[in-house]
Design brief:
Number of domains: 1
Largest sheet: 6 strands, antiparallel
Shape: globular
Distance between the termini: 42 Å
Number of strands: 38
Oligomer: single chain
Radius of gyration: 22 Å
C-alpha cells in the first residue's frame, strides 16, 4: 500500500484521452472536478500528515461517450513559496515549520496578539465549492483559491475576511434549488463576539472582471454564540432542510489559546483539537429564512461528526442523518508514519480507532412545554430514534443506527433537504483505504456493494439521468486507483440502481487519491 500514500503526484496539464471499456451514456456530459493532497515533500522536507499535502486538482470531462483527463497543482501562494524555496516553509495543520523564514519572531508575535489566531496556509486541498458562477478550491481556513474549471488554472486567492467577519469556514456548503450557496463559518475573538455564522451567497453573485469574487454579495443569515468562548466546536459540515439549518455543536473542540500559541510552544495546529468524552452534543435547529433558532434545547451523548448525509422535514420533525464516531482518533490514523505501514500491520494497529456509524437523529419541532416528562416525542413510525422530554424542558435525543463502516457519503443531490431513500459511500474496515462502493436503502435497511480486488475507489458522485423521476435513476462516478502496477487508474461508471459496471475509462496518467469534488454539467 505504500504506493497509495506519501508519494508525490505529478501534473497532467494537457488533456489526455482515456480508453473506454463499455458504454458511457450519451447523456453524461460535463466535468467531474476532484481535489485532494498530491505533493507530500519538497526538496528534502516532508509533511507529517496526509491532510497537509499540497492540493492537486483533477478533472474528468465526459463528452459524447468519451472521457478526457487532466490535473494541475493548485498554484496557491503556499505552493509558490514552497517551490521557490525548494523546501516546505509554510506550516500546515499537522506540520509546523520552525522557523518561518518569511516572518521573524516579533512579527509573528504581533500577528498572534492582534488577530488571536494565526494567518493560515492557502493550500486548499479539501473540496471544490461553487459561489455564484465561480469555482473555488477550498479547505477550512479563511482563504480560498478561485480556479478555472475548464483549464484548472488558478485564478487568484480570496480571503473570506475581506467580505464577512469569519476566521474559518467549511468546505462543504449546500446549494438550494435557486442556485444560492449556504455555508458556515466561525468568528473567533478579534472579529467581534465569538460565534458561528451561517451565510448565503446568491446565485447571481458573480460579476465579470478581475478582483470581483462572488463573496462580494455575501449575506449573513444568522449566528449562534459559542457555548464556551475559548473552546468552539469543530465542524466539517452541516445539514440543511427546506426551512432549517442543522448545526451539530459537538464536544470535539478547538482550543483557542493553544491555537494562538502553537508556534511558540512547538506544537502543530492539529494538536489544538481536543475531544471531551464527558461533554454533551448540542443540536441547533435554525430557521434559514428568518435566522431564528428553535427555542427547544436538543442534546445528545458525546460524539464526533465530520460528514452529514442529508436532512429533511417530515410531519413536524426535522430528520438529520450523519456519520458519527465515538471519539476523535480518526485524525491520528492519517499521520504519514501510520499510513505507510504494510496493510495487515496497519489494519491490526488501527483497530483501536472507532468505525464510522451512520446515525439518524429526529427533532420534533413543535415541542410543548407541558409535554409529559420522560415521554418520547418522536411520532414517526419509520425510525427508532427518540427525543425524550427531560424535567428541565430540554430534549434528550438518541439516534437510530442505520449502517456501519461507510464514509465519504453522497446522495442524489436533487433530494438534498428532502425525504430521500438512498445514500452512497466508500466502505472499508480499520483503514483509510476505501476498497468498496456501497449503496444503502433507508427503506429496506439493506445495502449492495461494488468491489474489485486491489482497487480503491474515491468518493462516489451521483449524476442523475435527464428527466429522471426515480431517486436512483442515474450513474455513480468514482476514480479508482490500485497499488498493482498492472492496473492503470480508471474512471468507474456504475448504474446507480444496482451498482453494476456500465463503463470504465482507463487513464494513461498517474492519478492520486483525492478527497471531495463536484460534477459540473455541460451547459445546454
Amino acid at each position: 500500500m505504500q504506493s497509495l500514500f506519501g508519494n508525490n503526484g505529478s501534473e497532467t496539464p494537457e488533456p489526455v484521452q482515456a480508453e473506454v471499456k463499455g458504454s458511457i451514456p450519451s447523456w453524461l456530459q460535463g466535468t467531474l472536478l476532484r481535489n485532494g493532497p498530491g505533493l507530500f515533500s519538497v526538496g528534502n522536507s516532508e509533511y507529517n500528515h496526509w491532510f497537509d499535502g499540497m492540493s492537486l486538482i483533477h478533472s474528468f470531462t465526459f463528452a459524447n461517450g468519451e472521457v478526457t483527463y487532466r490535473s494541475k497543482f493548485l498554484k496557491s501562494d503556499t505552493y509558490k513559496r514552497n517551490i521557490k524555496a525548494d523546501r516546505i516553509i509554510v506550516s500546515e495543520f499537522g506540520t509546523m515549520i520552525y522557523p518561518d523564514p518569511c516572518k521573524n519572531i516579533f512579527s509573528r508575535a504581533f500577528t498572534h496578539l492582534t488577530n488571536v489566531i494565526p494567518d493560515f496556509t492557502d493550500n486548499n486541498l479539501i473540496n471544490i465549492i461553487r459561489y455564484g458562477k465561480d469555482y473555488y478550491a477550498s479547505s477550512e481556513v479563511n482563504y480560498m483559491n478561485q480556479i478555472d474549471p475548464d483549464t484548472l488554472e488558478t485564478v487568484g486567492k480570496v480571503n473570506y475576511r475581506d467580505h464577512i467577519a469569519i476566521n474559518l469556514a467549511t468546505a462543504h456548503p449546500h446549494y438550494d434549488e435557486e442556485g444560492n450557496t449556504f455555508n458556515m463559518g466561525t468568528a473567533i475573538m478579534g472579529l467581534g463576539l465569538p460565534k458561528y455564522v451561517i451565510f448565503k451567497v446568491p446565485a447571481n453573485a458573480s460579476d465579470k472582471g478581475p478582483h470581483k469574487p462572488a463573496l462580494r454579495k455575501v449575506e449573513t443569515v444568522c449566528s449562534v454564540p459559542f457555548r464556551s468562548t475559548l473552546f468552539p466546536s469543530y465542524y466539517h459540515s452541516f445539514g440543511m432542510t427546506e426551512n432549517y439549518i442543522v448545526f451539530v455543536e459537538q464536544p470535539f473542540k478547538l482550543d483557542i489559546v493553544r491555537l494562538a500559541t502553537a508556534y511558540f510552544r512547538g506544537t502543530n495546529w492539529g494538536s489544538c483539537l481536543k475531544y471531551d468524552k464527558d461533554d454533551i452534543t448540542l443540536f441547533h435547529i435554525i430557521n434559514r429564512h428568518t435566522g431564528t433558532a428553535v427555542s427547544t434545547r436538543f442534546y445528545g451523548d458525546a460524539l464526533v461528526v465530520f460528514h452529514h448525509l442529508n436532512a429533511y422535514e417530515h410531519d413536524g420533525h426535522v430528520v438529520c442523518d450523519i456519520i458519527a464516531y465515538k471519539d476523535s482518533n480518526l485524525y491520528e490514523m492519517f499521520y504519514m508514519d501510520n499510513m505507510k505501514q504494510e496493510t495487515e500491520a496497519f489494519i491490526e494497529s488501527n483497530k483501536k480507532y472507532s468505525p464510522p456509524v451512520c446515525k439518524r437523529f429526529v427533532f420534533p419541532i413543535n415541542v410543548h412545554k407541558e409535554s409529559p416528562r420522560g415521554s418520547n416525542l418522536v411520532t414517526l413510525t419509520d425510525t427508532t430514534a427518540q427525543a425524550v422530554m427531560k424535567e428541565d424542558g430540554s430534549v434528550y435525543c438518541q439516534p437510530d443506527i442505520l449502517f456501519t463502516g461507510l464514509e465519504l457519503p453522497g446522495i442524489n443531490y436533487k433530494f438534498n433537504a428532502k425525504n430521500y431513500r438512498y445514500f452512497y459511500g466508500s466502505r472499508t474496515e480499520f483503514s483509510p483505504h476505501p476498497n468498496e462502493i456501497a449503496k444503502f436503502d433507508l427503506v429496506t435497511r439493506q445495502h449492495i456493494e461494488w468491489h474489485q480486488k486491489d482497487c480503491y475507489p474515491s468518493e462516489p458522485v451521483f449524476v442523475a439521468s435527464p428527466g429522471a423521476t426515480e431517486e436512483d435513476d442515474g450513474v455513480i462516478l468514482s476514480s479508482v486507483i490500485s497499488p498493482d502496477p498492472t492496473v492503470s487508474p480508471f474512471m468507474l461508471v456504475l448504474n446507480a440502481r444496482n451498482l453494476t459496471e456500465i463503463a470504465r475509462a482507463t487513464i494513461p496518467a498517474t492519478v492520486h487519491l483525492d478527497l471531495h469534488g463536484l460534477f459540473i454539467p455541460t451547459a445546454v
